[in-house]
Amino acid sequence: MTQQRVWCIGGLDTSGGAGITRDLITLADLGVHGCAISTQVAAQTSSALLCTQPTSASNLNEQWQALASEDMPGAIKIGAIANDEQALVLCARLQTLPKPKPFVVWDPVLTTSSGGTLSVLSSNSIRALLAHVDLITPNTDELGVLTGLTVDSEEVFSLALEALLSLGAKAIFAKGGHAKWQHEATDTYISADTRITFSQPRDLAGALRGTGCMLASALCAFWVKDYAIADALTLANAYLKQVRAAAFATALAASNKKQHSAQSRHCGSRKIAMAPAVGFPSVPSDFPSVCFGENDPVSLRKAVSPCDVLPRCDVLSRCAPAPFPALYAPGHPRSDLGIYPVVEDAAWLTKLLPTGVNIIQLRVKTGTKEAISAQIQKAVALTKHSDCKLFINDHWQLAIEHGAYGVHLGQEDLATANLTAIRKAGLRLGVSTHGYAEIQRIKRLRPSYIALGHIFPTTTKTMPSKPQGVERLGEYVALCEGIPTVAIGGINLSNVKAVAQTGVSSIAVVTAITQAANPFSAYYDLAKEAGFAN
Ligand SMILES: Cc1ncc(COP(=O)(O)OP(=O)(O)O)c(N)n1
Ligand SMILES: Cc1ncsc1CCOP(=O)(O)O
Ligand SMILES: [Mg+2]
């Protein structure tokens, strides 16, 4: 199996603005090989569907067989399915896919953006398809047609998502571009146990053709590049934002020059067809703000301004809470923190403080509350008259009680921690993240640092996510937009240089120090190799 390959099944839009033509352009832009199976040939201009000719069921089957006789894809993106016969063929083929099964995304295109009909499916076909796809990506109009509801408010939107899940959808990514009742454009991912929203300020530049196709095929591209689903969705959302920005900048430039190109003719009230190549999303402002769950504790704030009456995620990007205190006081000559040892008891501080270490974490995972409290109290006392910043892992109440410098919390810890109490007590806050979605969730908190991991395989802890590697680490550091960053997970003398070269502010290690024959010199060797010390 070739991983970086996606099959696109859908209508061939002769204008190149949407359908499988657009899918292949998107995949090429993201460096993924796209194969195509045409369900129909749609004679289209950039503003109208003139006529469409569906592919016969047998031809559809033959196209599939031809592709299947070579390499299988990592993902399959399905767009417009012309009729029930085609749905039947696709269901039969999807059912017999060899393992490992590709990730199957259905973008349920029913009409063209100009209003032409591309798909007529019975409710039986819809149910059958839902049983075979991993994710469906309707806009709110499509969600309405699929569920028989008029989706025109947040309440009906939630009902429609539930209805589609009960029709058999395993997961839904409902796009918010058409949800005019929302202040921001919010895409919602929902499965049986997860709800994640991705919000962008509404941009009023104009309408672009083929955005649904681009989003679903970009999602498949990020999936085959081995991103977790939440990260693939974050990247796909950012990719769309980047394409829109580039498309409207190009269209505007063309119309300013008074060129009579297709772009300039259709810029304004009409949809523009050209979507320039933009490549992998890299501009931090193009990334959405991300909320986990309807009551994400990171997003919940006390009502502080009139705009709190708006839906929560709409408010956040504009009414951000106060940042947590910086690691260094303003004007301090240092900005990096160097090697960050993470240790299991206060005795380690006695061993390591003489190195002149800048930052250290007490991560006590066992013992009674009294014993942990005593460890924290001792560690605070040991660091009180040093320059070393002491972070306490997990035990935020005890950290406040004993006056530690800061607290380190993981994503799950945020559900029970009182962030307001930590902020009020003046403690710094570090938070763990494991990819794009969590970074975008946490940035809004403006923590004192963002931990990024795990970078390499680690034996210290069982991780639910995959190792990120140094290439992604570099992308995450840039995405953090100046918030100090800490890399963690499997870092040792052999790889610390490459980690430091990403520009990360600090490098956290457990076993590279605690299991070293000489922890004292292991600290220096790491600091030197990373370029933090001479
Ligand atoms: C610097 C740093 N980064 C990540 C972690 C992990 O924190 P968390 O996800 O809460 O997991 P536990 O450490 O509690 O197992 C950390 N402690 N420090
Ligand atoms: C606590 C933690 N969080 C992410 S990786 C990790 C363990 C890092 O340990 P090591 O440096 O020994 O790989
Ligand atoms: Mg924790």
Automatic annotation (TrEMBL):
One of its GO terms (molecular function) is hydroxymethylpyrimidine kinase activity. InterPro entries: Aldolase_TIM, HMP/HMP-P_kinase_dom, PM/HMP-P_kinase-1, Ribokinase-like, ThiamineP_synth_sf, ThiamineP_synth_TenI, TMP_synthase. It holds the Pfam family Phos_pyr_kin. GO terms for biological process: thiamine biosynthetic process; thiamine diphosphate biosynthetic process. Residues 13-248 form the Pyridoxamine kinase/Phosphomethylpyrimidine kinase domain. Mg(2+) binds at D394, D413. Pathway: Cofactor biosynthesis; thiamine diphosphate biosynthesis; thiamine phosphate from 4-amino-2-methyl-5-diphosphomethylpyrimidine and 4-methyl-5-(2-phosphoethyl)-thiazole: step 1/1. SUPFAM superfamilies: Ribokinase-like, Thiamin phosphate synthase. 2-[(2R,5Z)-2-carboxy-4-methylthiazol-5(2H)-ylidene]ethyl phosphate binds at T458, T459, T460, G490, V510, T511. Binds 1 Mg(2+) ion per subunit. Keywords: ATP-binding, Kinase, Magnesium, Metal-binding, Multifunctional enzyme, Nucleotide-binding, Thiamine biosynthesis, Transferase. It is an enzyme of class 2 (transferase). NCBIfam families: PRK03512.1, thiE. Belongs to the thiamine-phosphate synthase family. This is Thiamine-phosphate synthase. It comes from Alteromonas profundi.
